[in-house]
Amino acid sequence: MTSRRSAACLSASLGALIVSLLLEGTIIAQDCSILDLQFPTASVTATQDRDRMLCLLGIKFPTLPPRIEDPNRPVNAWPRDPANPEGNWTDPRGHLVTRTPFGLWTTYDSDSGAQGGAMSGYGDYGPFSTPRYTDIDLLKMKDGTPVTTAEDWWTKRRPEIFSLIQQELYGRAIDPHIPINWTVSAITTGVQTVNGVDYPYRQKTFTGVVDTSSYPALRNTPVITAQCRFPAESGRRYPVIITYGEGVSRFQYTAPYGIGVCSYNPTSVQPDSGGANLSSYLIGLINKGNWRKPDDPGALVAWAWGVSRLIDRFATDPDLDAEKVGVEGHSRYGKSALVAAAYDDRIVVVWPSDAGALGTAIARRHWGEPLEFVASSTSEYHWVNGNIMKYMGPLNPGGYIPRRLELLDVDAHSTVALIAPRAIFITNGTDTPPGFGDAWADPRGTFLSGLLASPVWELLGWPGLIIPPGTVFTSGPDESVGGTPPFNVAFIDGTIGWRRQIEGHTPVPNWPTFAQFAARYLRDERPVIIPNQKFTVAKGSTNVGKVAAIDPDGGTLRSWQITGGTGVGKFSIDRSTGQITVKDPASLDLSDTPSYTLQVAVGDGLLMSRSETVTISAATVQLVTTATLTKLADGSYQATVVITNNGFANAENVRLTSATLGAVSATSLPVALGTIPAGGSASVTLQFPASAGPSGSAVIERYAGSYAGGTFLGSIRARLP
């Protein structure tokens, strides 16, 4: 565990970073002449690149009054340096208070009034407050249509949210098929001692050099690197947690659970800076060295892409299990960890530690770092896409709050919900020391993202965030109105976990809880649906069949759901049994569409299976006859007749009742053939007299018969042998 002193040092270093960001963030100069530069060069600055995006979108910084004269300034805040009122301000709680280039002040309303944090004059304007931004209901489509079933979520609402997340916040997903040349180092060994227990380990480093042949002029080659430490015993594949650069020493927390750790270096894929770097490395590669477009990805998506490519590589590794991967990142890397899990459903469990603005903190709320700061700061704008800049500034000309945030269709809880029903552990800290800790990352706003996303987990059949009734929430001058569950208490009974550390802006105190939480899912075996299952349905019937699946752990299968397919809306599945039925037999057109597909999935209470496709076809019988003729020694003819069922239903009580060769009939008819299953066949040998004709004569063979519910006919042009 980190001591209070070391945690304070971490917070102090964060505070120094915030100070530099805030000072930079107040710059309001804007130069649109950069639009005349058709192609970016290695000398483009972050300010030039940011301004170009603003100008491209037709956005200009407003003219603002001096801070000391600003009518929207917090009434209980003042310049930290009275001689420099245009610098950073502070408040009675020691918070850092600043103003964005679009005039929004950083505020920290509490229930202590002027004795608490800087007051906006409007409250936090977030969820559960009055007034507030219009609620974004995750279980309603953008047009207001209710989302009432798991099928609605998978086939309608989730795709809508994912599209909006890419358009409005983070940028489009990056092609997963860009070639990568992988090398793996030799394995080293060692022992890590945890609480007096020795844990032998093996260790190796993955290096993936991204192929730049699609744009050879790229200035810098993106490289994926990860050092991995995992249990020493060979002969099995281990679950693993990919952490954003925290080092393999985090194995001390996962070793007791038999889980490995990989320390991933995101900045060798895409640097944590804007300007010229956005036309190089991975983002430069996909844009072939050109400027970013408004919906192009930022660094958060680029870093997440590197995580996904590591998972690709683990699929062929003898030591690490690509089916059992967790991801952890802290602060800005917590934002990217969240994005990674939202964009890649192979990630089993994710921990976006203290992820704050444009991570796990609600953006449509005013407490701590605002969206406007991220989108306009030359030290942070590169994390996200350009379109996000459209949501800066007041909603109404000449107004202050509400801001254009009202126009956002998605928020942090929307991104969190994309992870459902997988596991997520959400954390935040305290403002330790005051002004240099997690007030900037908005602890209550972070808590709310999990709380507001919980209904999606519940819709899918998993528990969301569980806070026991009677839990006393935090309050006081340092706390947002409404507070959070108490400090240093782990709430991990649900699939959404929560813990708020007392130590400030650091992940260290939460690692033991996360390891325990993650092990629950990473050590579970995912249910498996038997592949290539086929069913038939008769016209007018509701019954289709029961999907078969197994749980390797022997757990109870539950939460069956339809996740896609051409049969969406026409069939339903029983959540408990996997029984598929027709929703409305009268509206099921089996003549024009004789076959449908459904993607189905099932859970075991912890993990959901991969979706498998089942096929549902019209219960039709289609009997086709073929025959082979042979001339016997006595001049008669023998026909070997094969009747094949090319339909989707079994043909029962099949009888061959008539067979003619030219003008003569076969003997020994009728013949009972029993049941011919779908795709199966039956054969019978028939005799025809020599009077059918001489060898070489052209004749027509005709066969007829019946089966339960119908008849069949067949004719074959033949030449007598």
UniProtKB/TrEMBL annotation:
Annotated spans, Disordered: 68-93
Highest taxon above the source species: Bacteria
Record GO cellular component, one term: membrane
A GO BP annotation: homophilic cell adhesion via plasma membrane adhesion molecules
SUPFAM superfamilies for the chain: alpha/beta-Hydrolases (SSF53474), Cadherin-like (SSF49313)
This protein's record includes keyword Ribonucleoprotein: no
Molecular function as annotated in GO: calcium ion binding; carboxylic ester hydrolase activity
Domain Cadherin: 542-616
Xref: PROSITE patterns: CADHERIN_2 (PS50268)
Keywords: Hydrolase, Serine esterase, Signal
Protein name: Cadherin domain-containing protein
